[in-house]
Amino acid sequence: MSIRKPIPRIKNDNYSEAAAKQRREFIEAETGVSLKHTGHYSIDPKVVEGNAENFIGVVQMPVGVAGPYLINGEHAQGVFYVPMATTEGTLIASYSRGMRVISESGGATVTVTGESMQRAPLFEFASAREALHFSRWLEQELPSIRAQAESTTAIGKLQHIQSWVIANKLFTRFNYSTGDAAGQNMTGKATHKACQWILGNYPGVIENFSLSCGIETDKKHSHMNLLHSRGKKVVAEATISKDVLKDLMRADPERMVRLRQRTILGAILAGSAYNGPHSANGIASMFIATGQDEANVVESHTGIAFMDLTPAGDLYYSVTLPSIICASYGGGTGLPTQRECLEMMDCYGQDKARKLAEIIGATVLAGDLSLAAAIVSDEWVSSHDQLGRNRP
């Protein structure tokens, strides 16, 4: 006998307050848990269609702002206040502290050095030689393949196709630019169309095909994305005045660099995806606030932090984040509160994705600087005692 009790749905009106209320009452009856706060919201349930199924309400995540922050990007230029959604005490205060120190030292310089989004089809053959022959055919037919892929999207552009022969298989990565969208669904649709043309026009025999072979590493960390990038590759850097660093953070450049040398060893020992203090904190809090796909944090947080002393004795600090996957349009960015957070930084809509990526990169830089200085000055624990989770 089936004990399945389907979650209630209202045909042709499933994104309505009536449907949401019916589901809340169902869950309350099934679990005995009151959904008083979950069911309290200001948005119209109809706006979440395409974002969340079986809608019952919202999780009210605290949102604070860090800043003011002077950013000297190619796209993000000026002073910004950065929305961060988090439940971790001291986090926003720490990022604000880093932003102040960088701003008083001239600001953060940020550069988007590249961008691409991938889908990675697999083609199998009778032998490695045939797989190699096919890879050469792909190069020759790239204009036709590009035309097929780009026929599915107004903004996606197929940049190039990478390929690797392994045994009798050809692993590929179709690399796209995706405008202001993150682009995973866009590239999937485009690559599917292109591959249907390939399967119908290749003169040889393709014994097996899969639209994904795993090396796009969608929502998984990989060393490949560190080398080739997925999303936007961002470098954020700043030269921190030794006097400002000492006055505001009670740390000095020499000790900061010494700490970084040692944490690099620790990161190697642990096999870490990032050798800085905590890139995921800033990225996750901004992603949640601005309606990004939060699972992309696992790819976006990877990177390389670097410190050095300048001839004047100041601190040069940079973070290179090769796979920031963010959007200024589409997905969850248009939901009411998420859009407000994007608009707070003038990052909603067309031609704003690179600006958002620059602000994210600069924010990671500020948070890393603040935490590293707190370790050097031995204020890490005391700050949590004062503001965070260590409070009695």
TrEMBL record:
<dbReference type="InterPro" id="IPR009029">
    <property type="entry name" value="HMG_CoA_Rdtase_sub-bd_dom_sf"/>
</dbReference>
<comment type="similarity">
    <text>Belongs to the HMG-CoA reductase family.</text>
</comment>
<protein>
    <recommendedName>
        <fullName>hydroxymethylglutaryl-CoA reductase (NADPH)</fullName>
        <ecNumber>1.1.1.34</ecNumber>
    </recommendedName>
</protein>
<keyword id="KW-0521">NADP</keyword>
<dbReference type="Pfam" id="PF00368">
    <property type="entry name" value="HMG-CoA_red"/>
</dbReference>
<dbReference type="GO" id="GO:0008299">
    <property type="term" value="P:isoprenoid biosynthetic process"/>
</dbReference>
<dbReference type="InterPro" id="IPR004554">
    <property type="entry name" value="HMG_CoA_Rdtase_eu_arc"/>
</dbReference>
<dbReference type="GO" id="GO:0004420">
    <property type="term" value="F:hydroxymethylglutaryl-CoA reductase (NADPH) activity"/>
</dbReference>
<keyword id="KW-0560">Oxidoreductase</keyword>
<dbReference type="InterPro" id="IPR023074">
    <property type="entry name" value="HMG_CoA_Rdtase_cat_sf"/>
</dbReference>
<dbReference type="InterPro" id="IPR002202">
    <property type="entry name" value="HMG_CoA_Rdtase"/>
</dbReference>
<dbReference type="InterPro" id="IPR009023">
    <property type="entry name" value="HMG_CoA_Rdtase_NAD(P)-bd_sf"/>
</dbReference>
<dbReference type="GO" id="GO:0015936">
    <property type="term" value="P:coenzyme A metabolic process"/>
</dbReference>
